[in-house]
Amino acid sequence: MTRTFRTAPLAAVLAVLLVSPAYAQPAPSAEAARDWPQVEPDRPWIYRGSDVPPDPEWQFGELSNGLRYAVRFNEVPQEQLSIRVRIDAGSLHERDGERGFAHLLEHLLFRESRYLKEGETIPKWENLGATFGSDTNAETTPTHTVYKLDVPDMNPTKLDETFKLLSGMVEGPTLTEKGVRTEVPIVLAEMRERGGAGKRVADATRETYFNGMKLAVRSPIGTVETLNAANQQNVRAFYNRWYRPENTVITVAGDVAPAVMVQMLEKYFGGWKGKGAWTPAPDFGDPVPGANAKAAAGALAPVDKLTVLDEPDLPISINYAILRPWEKVADTIEYNEGLLTNQLSMAIINRRLENRARAGGSYLAAQVGQDDVSRSTDATFVSITPLGDDWKGALTDVRAVISDALANPPGEDEIAREFAEFENAFRVGVETQEVQQAADLANNVVQAVDIRETVAAPDTVLKVLSGMRGKVTPDAILSHTRALFTGPVLRGVMTVPQASMADEAAFRAAMVAPVQADASARVQAKAISFADLPSLGTPGTVSEAVPTGILEVERLTLSNGTKLLIWPNDAEPGRVSVRVRFGDGYEAFGKDDAPYIALGEFALMGTGIGPLSQDDLDQVSNGRKMGLDFSIEDGEFVMGAETRAADLEDQLYLFAAKLATPRWDANPVLRAKAALEMGYDTYSTSPNGVMQRDLEYILRGKDPRFATPTPAALKAADMAGFRKVWEPILASGALEVEIFGDVPRADAIAAVNKTFGALAPRSATTPKADLSKVPAPTAEPIFLTHRGDANQAAAVIGWPTGGGRQGIQVSRQLEILSQIFNNRLFDAMRERLGASYAPNVGSRWPLDRSDGGMILAMAQLQPEAVPAFFEESKKIAADLATTPPTAEEVSRVTEPLRQLIMRASSGNGFWLRELAGSAGDPSRLSAVPTILDDYSKTTPEAMQMLAQTFLANDRSFEVAIVPEEQGQ
């Protein structure tokens, strides 16, 4: 059944709730059935042993060879088929000498197979319209390996070809010695690219939490020693042991009749037979306390293994977990009621922790969550990011909040608040179930099988929650909270920038020290309603309404000058997308404003609105579908939200009131300031971090507005300066409102008139001088340094192109050229330079500036390979300018782009992006009708001409990010 709030922050979970994993408890047939009880054979295999009502949209079945499947008709997007092949084998199934083999096999299946020769797999899928990396991909985890394929523009011929090729990959990979020897360096490169401080912390955390269990020493990436020892024989042995129909579940969702899907499965997978005897899964182990485990005061689990890491470039962090053995469950309605009660319990604690942090607590952030990890442990996790160096105070404060939750039941109002959030999220799921993506539905079943629980339709999930009303009492929450913090073992990891700050003994002493339960963080309910908020003024009226000529989109002008772009449609039932554009974006800032730009991105929406503080905003929107997203673009500021018709007017009120009556609470800014200061040094831990910190600044010709603010610059920033920068920005500039989605036209217009139409006319803005310029050509690379692993580097090379809306069609054709370049560089880098999937080429073309566009190629690699990367990139650029690409190269790019646009254009997000700003500037509409042709129709000669125009190597610039000791 769909599990709800797991370990992510509340807001983040709500955003992805209805595409989060669903879980299942299957009963495999044939040999694999030894692991599972065969009960209720008349029920679909995924529901055996459960009283959860089957989702009628899914058809579950089994082939005679033991392969299980789930198929479902779905038209979102139309003519697409999403296929997932799950093999019940991951890194936990590897023997000691096989570590990394499950992931290596994932690579090898894409390399060569029964129907695809070496080097043909990716081009073949691309010619079928599937983009590698997004439509064609795979994943290896500790418990499974999954092959993912989303094929657009499905027809009978392509359907047959798709299943044929996929079956050849899964049943008949060509596992040659040459293939193994070629792919191992690529996997080792992937390991290298994931290195650095982050990997060290992740490895230490895994080894600490899961000490004594296979999970502690079974990272899917493997080890250098075992990968270098891989050969055709031992890799094939791993394949033969685990790749068999009894261990396979294939999920298919899409715009094809389910009976036809089943026919394809029987045709291409029905004859598959495993080699040798079936092998049961190994024992993954249980969390068992060690000899040093010691009971903590007031804790419900003995403190066992603790690790303290010294990482100079990382801020202090504290994480600990209470671990319990994982057990297979009967996934019943009662069981799911228990899960939901657990999640409600943690949501209450998390809101209290957030409340304490907002009020100026000793920590920047803290959170609790529960997860069933890799069928190895059922664990409750606690994470803390202290403010400053007083980690003991932060740990004590968080433990005190948790201690209160363990000692005393919550208030009825706290329960009601979180229940309303859950109910709203589930109701949104019901309202929007018609637009669930086929890919998401297929992924849900895969992850369901992985955790051995069931899947449920959205209305079933809502019904289960509704049936809990009255059962979720304060005492029930208290009981579940105590169970979540009870277990045989507690383990933790702390990271400090200096070894003198903490050691294992100090960490242990702080964990076992007594704490006083702190009830001060309990959230007090307030009677806040939109009906009680002050009016924004006299509602406006519509003075002009004209069709755009694009679909049924209209341009309206209100009596106060506000522009409105509106498109009522039911393409996405239950969803309404809102965007508000105003001001000059980056052009509104001066050269000294970088700290306030960064702080505004993080904190501006949190500083409050009129009489509403950040906490009040949470309260007034409780149980509603509302948001306050904010972004800064080159020429405008954008507020956005995904809402629904019933909440649209109040959503618009929040946006309009933010502009008309902004509030200037200091705590959100101070908190953002602390977070930015603490995180600054982490950029230095890897080439990717340095790129994130400095690349945009360099690409903008060292425009100071795009510099990542240093801790010193942030310390100098204050609330007075923040308000001085942002107050005039919110108060000026023409307004454009865009509303696309499932709302009646009259209701949407009335809501805009009452909110934005009621605002006083706004003053014009005066953009400041543009400080950006195109990077100058470089005779030698610009060298940046990092403090990560000595075998890590990154390289970037760019060629200036252009900018402006008058060249928008050129920009679209440049995207095709960039992807052709990308395919060539991908092949060259993987085979010649030992990179994994890091090489990437892309085009950027700013529409609000006359220059600043560029084609960029970048990669992560070894330091000694940086010169070769630049050499290879320039060679490709010169060759594209000298000789037209082949027609096959062009079609490999244009067909996936065409399919991508066709799929995307069925949703409101696509049209919001393409029509952005046209309410105030209707000339932007002129390029819309040619989108599809611009991205999907071209010739080799046209590509050559673009390469001759823009890929001149004497205009290129280079950036290299190398270890400090190698920097120049």
How do the strands and helices of this protein lay out in sequence?
Layout: H1 10-16, E1 59-62, E2 68-73, E3 81-87, H2 101-111, H3 121-127, E4 136-140, E5 145-151, H4 156-171, H5 177-193, H6 197-209, H7 224-228, H8 232-242, E6 248-254, H9 258-269, E7 294-295, E8 302-310, E9 317-325, H10 333-358, E10 363-373, E11 377-386, H11 391-407, H12 412-431, H13 438-451, H14 458-467, H15 474-484, E12 489-496, H16 504-512, E13 542-547, E14 554-558, E15 563-568, E16 576-582, H17 594-603, H18 614-620, E17 629-632, E18 637-643, H19 648-660, H20 667-679, H21 687-699, H22 711-716, H23 719-731, E19 735-741, H24 745-754, E20 782-786, E21 793-800, H25 808-832, E22 840-844, E23 854-861, H26 866-882, H27 887-904, H28 908-914, H29 931-936, H30 940-950, E24 957-963
Parallel strand pairs: 2-6, 8-12, 15-19, 20-24
Antiparallel strand pairs: 1-2, 3-5, 3-6, 4-5, 7-8, 9-11, 9-12, 10-11, 13-14, 14-15, 16-18, 16-19, 17-18, 21-23, 21-24, 22-23
Helix pairs in contact: 2-5, 3-27, 4-9, 10-12, 10-15, 12-14, 17-20, 19-24, 25-26, 25-27, 26-30
Keywords: Hydrolase, Metalloprotease, Protease, Zinc
Domain Peptidase M16 N-terminal: 76-193
InterPro entries: Metalloenz_LuxS/M16, Pept_M16_N, Peptidase_M16, Peptidase_M16_C
Describe the structure.
By secondary structure, this protein is α+β, with helices and mostly antiparallel strands. Among the domains are: 219 residues, Cytochrome Bc1 Complex, Chain A, domain 1 (2-Layer Sandwich); 229 residues, 2-Layer Sandwich (Cytochrome Bc1 Complex, Chain A, domain 1); 185 residues, Metalloenzyme, LuxS/M16 peptidase-like (Cytochrome Bc1 Complex, Chain A, domain 1), CATH 3.30.830. The protein is built from 30 helices and 24 strands. Strands 13-14-15-19-16-18-17 form a seven-stranded mixed β-sheet, with helices on both faces. It has a six-stranded mixed β-sheet with strand order 1-2-6-3-5-4, with helices on both faces. Strands 7-8-12-9-11-10 form a six-stranded mixed β-sheet, with helices on both faces. A hairpin with a 4-residue loop joins strand 4 and strand 5. Helix 4 runs parallel beside helix 9 and helix 25 packs across helix 27. The radius of gyration is 29 Å and the shape is globular. The two termini are 56 Å apart. The N terminus is likely disordered.
